């Protein structure tokens, strides 16, 4: 009877002491890696946002070039106005 109990408890203790902790750690690491990756929809949304941001930069550069040619000194006036606004706030 004692041999049967010992034969059950020794493998159980080895499992609980060694295998189970490693198993739990590996399980949660794989879950974390899976959650940190972007899904296909998220990748598509990110790609769309990057494209839109690039278009906005191009448009801003075009508008600034138009303002530079039609209204010289507009940058200096804008900086002065922003300086006054920040000082009064």
Task: Please summarize what this structure is.
The chain has 89 residues and is mainly α. It has helices at residues 2-36, 40-70, 74-88. It folds into two domains: 1-37; 39-89.
Secondary structure elements and pairings:
Blueprint: H1 2-36, H2 40-70, H3 74-88
- The succession of helices and strands, N to C, reads HHH
The major sheet is characterized as: none
The termini sit apart by 85 Å
* Count of DSSP H/I helices: 3
Q: Oligomeric status of the shown chains?
A: single chain
The coarse overall form would be rod-shaped
Provide the number of structural domains: 2
Keywords:
2 domains; 89 residues; mainly alpha; 3 helices; rod-shaped; 91% helix
Explain the overall architecture.
It contains 3 helices and no strands. The protein is mainly alpha-helical and 89 residues long. The protein folds into 2 domains: 37 residues; 51 residues. The model has no long low-confidence stretch (mean pLDDT 86).
